[in-house]
Specification:
The chain is 68% helix and 2% strand. With 549 residues, it is mainly alpha-helical. The two termini are 43 Å apart.
């Protein structure tokens, strides 16, 4: 009791509270940066070099294309020549590919980052070998920035929803604190766990890969949705998808969620933001003639004039969405190129026709033990002269879509009830994607492990499940990194990780099921305040959202 009284008294002091939070944030930031760098230094001997080489190769190909299309070397080096080669690379790869084996599976923005990186490396080391690219640090700094932004977004998410929710953790240390202070503590705890997430650090600095680039886009999209900024949510999702296409698998969550609330305009605003941003990014490929640009400008003028006169709410969102749709339609009819779509997205979705890649703890991994394959037909119904094969790949996709729809329904219900488990619903799409879909790489659970840190703002039980998922994600990444090098001293570890894969798969599926159950359940969580205690907690004025009034 004395400890709790002292804890409460200290937090009653505004100066002490602010100083403590600033000190903790500084320590966590500096310690996290050092941990990330230390991980990168200590894992160089097991670094998965292929992804670095691949990124550098395709960035260099954009530079080669710039030189090929330029009249001389001098005109190829400036940024105008660079853009010429970058925009032409997709078409060249598509035309030269043998049996549609493109090799390139980078969406437009990721290819742009790799091309800029290769340009920087080539300018400092003109004769550098493709197999040993120098100066990987710029990409690692981008990884570090995205990790930091992800932690900040998780802090904002947890703090916002703990403030809004009707209940919070029943920790004896936090019970006597005002709701606002508890929101800060839960948010800081979740952000700290995300910032120090071992699987993310290994993926971004030990491997290294570029998976972490899309996390800030998803998390800030969720934050925008919670704040009723659905158009911004769609814009963030589109920008993130242009870095890594896997974001498209979880993006429907933000459309189904408002549909379950019967808020049709919110779903349309997400689609408008997504379409407008995607069209803006790929417009150099879509609109290749002056006539195409004139047609888009005409549509923009007519739609703006019509909607501004009508005085509809969210006019700017509808105008942007109409212009985005017009860009795609006009591009299709005026000879625009869709090579960016075929090479950067569609090819990547069919590049690995396997139930799972490397070492995965998920349902497809268990199904492979039964001798099933991704393209194996499970049903072959016929309707007269029409027939089709329902493969295992599509069965898993339908199962995932059904689970995602249930997850979206749970999110709509938890948002209506201002329940803390709304945070778990936000993390569920990533967990379901890895657990149910085929063609998953072992790294892809990292997204669920990072976003799942929001569980620290919900309950102790779900926090424990988060740490189990984090351990499983880390183990899979370690397994693949060790297999790639196969040092004699690591063989026992490789054998152990291989032998536990079926059991770990079952454990991950159980954890995902528990999280989904908590998302769908209507019961009051065990670790929330009881209704009878609500009078003892200072209330926070949380007026309804403008659209919900």
């Amino acid at each position: 009791m004395a400890i709790r009284a002292l804890f409460t008294q200290l937090f009653a002091s505004g100066f002490f509270r602010r100083a403590l939070f600033v000190f903790l944030i500084i320590v966590l930031f500096i310690g996290g940066v050092q941990l990330h760098r230390w991980t990168g230094d200590k894992t160089r001997h097991v670094r998965f070099q292929h992804d670095i080489v691949n990124g550098f190769y395709w960035g260099s190909e954009a530079l080669k294309e710039a030189r090929r299309l330029s009249p001389d070397e001098a005109s190829a080096n400036p940024w105008t020549g660079f853009c010429r080669g970058y925009f032409a690379l997709y078409d060249r790869v598509r035309h030269q590919a043998y049996k549609k084996d493109y090799g390139l599976d980078y969406p437009p923005l990721r290819l742009l980052v790799m091309a800029i990186w290769a340009k920087q490396v080539r300018s400092e080391f003109p004769g550098v070998d493709d197999g040993h690219p120098k100066l990987v640090n710029p990409l690692l700094k981008i990884n570090l920035l995205c990790e930091l932004l992800s932690a900040v977004a998780i802090f904002l998410l947890v703090r916002l929803w703990v403030r809004r929710s009707s209940g919070t953790t029943r920790s004896s240390l936090l019970r006597g604190l005002p709701l606002q202070h508890r929101a800060w503590i839960c948010g800081l705890a979740a952000a700290s766990v995300a910032w120090l997430e071992p699987s993310m650090i290994l993926d971004a600095h030990g491997w290294p890969q570029w998976d972490v680039w899309i996390l800030p886009f998803y998390l800030f999209a969720a934050l925008a949705a919670l704040k009723n900024r659905w158009f911004c949510c769609g814009c963030l999702l589109a920008a993130g998808a242009m870095l890594k296409g896997q974001l498209l698998f979880v993006a429907p969550f933000f459309i189904l969620w408002p549909l379950w609330q019967k808020r049709w305009t919110r779903a349309l605003r997400v689609l408008a933001g997504f379409t407008a941003t995607a069209a803006l990014i790929v417009s150099p490929w879509l609109l290749r003639t002056s006539a195409a640009w004139i047609a888009v400008l005409a549509v923009a003028g007519v739609s703006s004039l019509f909607l501004l006169r009508r005085g509809l709410p969210h006019r700017s969102a509808w105008i942007a969405g109409i212009i985005g749709c017009a860009a795609f339609v006009i591009g299709a009819f005026t000879g625009g190129s869709f090579a960016w779509l075929q090479v950067g997205f569609i090819y990547g979705s069919e590049h690995y026709p396997y139930l799972f890649i490397s070492s995965c703890y998920n349902l497809p991994s268990l199904l492979s033990k039964l001798g099933l394959s991704l393209k194996e037909p499970l049903l072959s119904p016929h309707f007269g002269h029409l027939g089709f094969d329902l493969t295992l790949q599509w069965t898993l996709r339908l199962l995932y879509l059904g689970a995602l729809a249930l997850c979206s329904r749970g999110a709509a219900r938890q948002m209506r009830d201002r329940d803390p488990r709304m945070l778990i619903a936000i993390a569920m799409p990533w967990l379901l994607m890895f657990a149910l879909l085929g063609q998953m790489h072992e790294r892809y659970l990292m997204w669920g492990a990072v976003v799942g840190a929001v569980a620290l703002g919900v309950s102790l039980r779900l926090s424990i499940i988060h740490f189990i998922i984090s351990a499983a994600s880390t183990a899979m990444i370690v397994h693949v990194m060790l297999i790639d090098k196969k040092f004699e001293g690591t063989l026992p570890t490789i054998h152990l990780l291989s032998s536990i894969r079926p059991y770990a798969s079952g454990l991950v599926l159980v954890c995902v099921t528990v999280c989904l159950w908590n998302t769908l359940s209507t019961r009051i969580p065990v670790f929330q305040h009881r209704r009878s205690d609500s009078n003892t907690v200072p209330s926070l004025s949380l007026g309804p959202e403008p659209e919900e009034a």
